[in-house]
Every structure is written in structure tokens, then in C-alpha cells.
Design a protein that fits this description.
heterodimer; A: mainly beta; seven-stranded mixed sheet; four-stranded antiparallel sheet; 0% helix; globular; B: 115 residues; mainly beta; 12 strands
Chain lengths: 114, 115
């Protein structure tokens, strides 16, 4: 196991609602990245947080937002849920060193939007 | 833009036989390359990575991968497959350099090891 934890494990919401997903990074890591994995697809990068600042963003609309806290844990918030938001949401933590650091993934939160 | 192609959706191999899972990539610049494995209803587990240096990289559980710059490939290999290796395998790429942060994944290859 990586030491990256996510909560909740599963979640069911209805279209238009808002959701918050949480991630605790591995001890000693200062960077958290979020990915969306739709069924049968590879993970797609949503955004990354480094030292509490957004450090990069993928091709996701502004209704996907996030936070990183001083202890480097992180939240992913999704507003105005759509059916296509149903997916496995993965959090990955890493230690940014300017080199090819490895991202270590948590078990994910499976979100179903009805 | 960076991209990864995993040309095979599924690979079947008999237990004890060598296995290869293929990956090709496209980046502007020098790549960092990664392999992850995903078991059902689980997150991604890191197997190995290429950053620089020796083109043959050894990783967890007996897996290895060879970086081939001219063919822009990073195929995953194992000399003798186990039934427990059956899982979904993802290749990922990131461009080296400041400001680079995004891992781009392939669509995944389902490996089935037949007893």
C-alpha cells in the first residue's frame, strides 16, 4: 500500500448536486494530483496542487476545483454534477524535486451520478 | 502535447511464458516514462520508471521495461508470467523540465495469464 488514502470509497449523487472528495497524501510528500478515470479508459489529469497552490490544470471546466491544506492533504470539489462525471477519481501524491518523481496513487473514490 | 499509445487492448499469455505489453509515446522533449498496474476496484500501483541512464529498467515483481528512443517505445516485459500478473496495465509519460507536472496515460492493456 502507498499510504495515500481517499474518502469516501463510493458515492452516489444526482445531477446538479455538488460533491467533495478528500485525499491524504503519503507522509513526506508535498504535491497532490487528481485524475478522473472513466470506465474503460486511462486516468485523465484534472489538476495538481503544490504547497497549497494550483500547479497545473488539465482540460476540465472550472466547476472542478480543489484545495490543498498545510498538511498537504487535498480536496476535489465538483459543482453542478453531470452524468458524465461518473467515474473513479484518483488522488496521487509525490515529492516535487524537479526531477522524475513518482506519483503514488490512492485507492480512488467511485462516483456515480444519477 | 504529449500522448501515449497502447496498441493492444488485451494480451493473453500462458503461465510461465514471457510477456510483453507494448507502449509508444510522443512528447516534445525528453520523456519520463512510467508503468502502473491496476487490479479490479483498486487504484494504480507503481511498477517502474525510466528517467535517464540505462535503457533497461527493472521494477517490482520481476517486471522490466526497455526505453527505445529511436522507436519512441517503452515496452513492459517479464520473463515468466504468473496468473497473479493478470491485471490492467497503464503506460504513462511526462515531459522532463521545469513546470512539467502532468502524467498522460494510455488507455490500458488487459493482461490475462492463463494457467
Amino acid at each position: 500500500e502507498t499510504g495515500v488514502t481517499q474518502s469516501p470509497t463510493h458515492l452516489i449523487k444526482t445531477r446538479g448536486q455538488q460533491v467533495t472528495l478528500r485525499c491524504s497524501s503519503q507522509s513526506g510528500h508535498n504535491t497532490v494530483s487528481w485524475y478522473q478515470q472513466a470506465l474503460g479508459q486511462g486516468p485523465q489529469f484534472i489538476f495538481q496542487y503544490y504547497r497549497e497552490e494550483e500547479n497545473g490544470r488539465g482540460n476540465f471546466p472550472p466547476r472542478f476545483s480543489g484545495l490543498q491544506f498545510p498538511n498537504y492533504s487535498s480536496e476535489l470539489n465538483v459543482n453542478a454534477l453531470e452524468l458524465d462525471d461518473s467515474a473513479l477519481y484518483l488522488c496521487a501524491s509525490s515529492m516535487t524535486t524537479g526531477g522524475g518523481e513518482t506519483q503514488y496513487f490512492g485507492p480512488g473514490t467511485r462516483l456515480l451520478v444519477l | 502535447a504529449q500522448s501515449v499509445a497502447q496498441p493492444e487492448d488485451q494480451v493473453n499469455v500462458a503461465e510461465g511464458n514471457p510477456l510483453t505489453v507494448k507502449c509508444t509515446y510522443s512528447v516534445s522533449g525528453n520523456p519520463y516514462l512510467f508503468w502502473y498496474v491496476q487490479y479490479p476496484n483498486r487504484g494504480l500501483q507503481f511498477l517502474l520508471k525510466y528517467i535517464t541512464g540505462d535503457n533497461l529498467v527493472k521494477g517490482s515483481y520481476g517486471f522490466e521495461a526497455e526505453f527505445n528512443k529511436s522507436q519512441t517505445s517503452f515496452h513492459l516485459k517479464k520473463p515468466s508470467a504468473l496468473v497473479s500478473d493478470s491485471a490492467l496495465y497503464f503506460c504513462a509519460v511526462r515531459v522532463s523540465g521545469a513546470g512539467s507536472y502532468q502524467l498522460t496515460f494510455g488507455k490500458g492493456t488487459k493482461l490475462s495469464v492463463i494457467p
